[in-house]
Amino acid sequence: TSRRDLAAVNQPSPLVKFDDGLPVATGGGSGTARGTGDFEMQIRTMQPADRAAVAALLVELNRFENQFGGDRDTREEAGMACHLGIEATVAGDGGAVLVADDGSRLVGVLALAFSDGDAYVRPDIRTYGRVLDLVVTEGARGLGVGPKLLEEAERRTREAGRASMLVGALIGNDRAIATYERFGFKAHVVELLKIL
C-alpha cells in the first residue's frame, strides 16, 4: 500500500447524529447506535492536539480493565506511555489512531495496526488489521461510539487490502466481548497468563 493510498484511508467519516436513539447520517454514511437524546460525533484520525485526551482515555481503559486481572498500570503517566507505544506501532505499519469526537471532547479511541500473520496461517487471510485498544468514556457508553469506531477500522482495513481483523478482550469483560461478537468477530484463540 502506498502513502497516497493510506492518505485516502485516513479521511474522516461523515458526522453522524443520533436523535432520540435513531441514527440519522449527515453528509453520507449511516449510524448504528442506540441512545437517548441528541448525540453527534465524528470519527476521525487523531491529531497531535488530541494526545493528552487520548492518554486520559487509555488511563480510563486501564482502570476499567484492572478489575479483570489486576495487572493494569493505572497511574496517569501510564496513559501517555501506552499512547506513545501505540503511536509508534501504528506509524510503522500504516495503521491509525482513530478518535470519536462529539464536538467538545473525545469520547472514544481505537488504535488500529496492520500486520501479516505467521506462515502457518492460510495466505488468503494472513494479512489483517488488529484493534490494539478500544475505549469509550463512561458517559458515552451505550450510545454506539464503539461500533462506529469499529466500522471505521473495518473500512480502513478493507481499503488497505487486508483480509481479516483481530481484536482481543480480557476474560470477564463480557460487554466488550458481546459488542465484538455482534460486530461479527468470533472466538479465535485463548491466551493464558502466569505471573511469576
Keywords:
196 residues, alpha+beta, seven-stranded mixed β-sheet, 5 helices, 35% helix, disordered N terminus
Concise synopsis of the structure shown:
35% of the residues lie in helices and 24% in strands. The protein contains 5 helices and 7 strands.
Model description:
It contains 5 helices and 7 strands, in the order αβββααβββαβα. A hairpin with a 2-residue loop joins strand 1 and strand 2. The chain has a 7-stranded mixed beta sheet, sandwiched between helices. The N terminus is likely disordered. The longest helix has 19 residues. Helix content is 35%, strand content 24%. The termini are far apart. It is globular. Helix 2 crosses helix 3. With 196 residues, it is α+β, with helices and mostly antiparallel strands.
Q: Which term fits the overall shape?
A: globular
Which blocks of ≥5 consecutive residues have pLDDT under 50?
A: 1-36
**Percent in strands:** 15-25%
The average pLDDT value, as a whole number, equals: 81
Helix/strand order: HEEEHHEEEHEH
Q: How many E strands? A: 7
Give the % helix: 25-40%
- First CA to last CA: what distance? 42 Å
Structure annotation, total helices: 5
Give a quick account of the main beta sheet: strands, pairing sense, barrel closure. 7 strands, mixed
Instruction: Give the strand order, joined by hyphens, for the main sheet.
Output: 2-1-3-4-5-6-7
